[in-house]
Input
Amino acid sequence: LKLFDVIDGNEWITDRSLGAESLRKASQFVDEQIDEMQYRFGIDTRDIVLVGISEGGFLSLYTALTARYKLGGIIGIITCLPYLDELTQEAMNTNQVNADTP
Output
């Protein structure tokens, strides 16, 4: 199953050889979906909670760390945040609007 030329089956990160770049690409897809919810349906981003298990969990965490909008919540289940060395500086350089998001 391939959705939107980004998601292959139940995997968010389809090319692990790209490392953190594959996580950025998947996060961009999530950002686009949130943008669509905002503009097409008028959903406030503070009413959106990112939830993910395993890969979806670290995608949720990374997306929240680098988001340009305030989210309602972030839940990562059985997860981690890979590529932390590469992502730490990037996350520190972004607007940390979700630093206090539950």
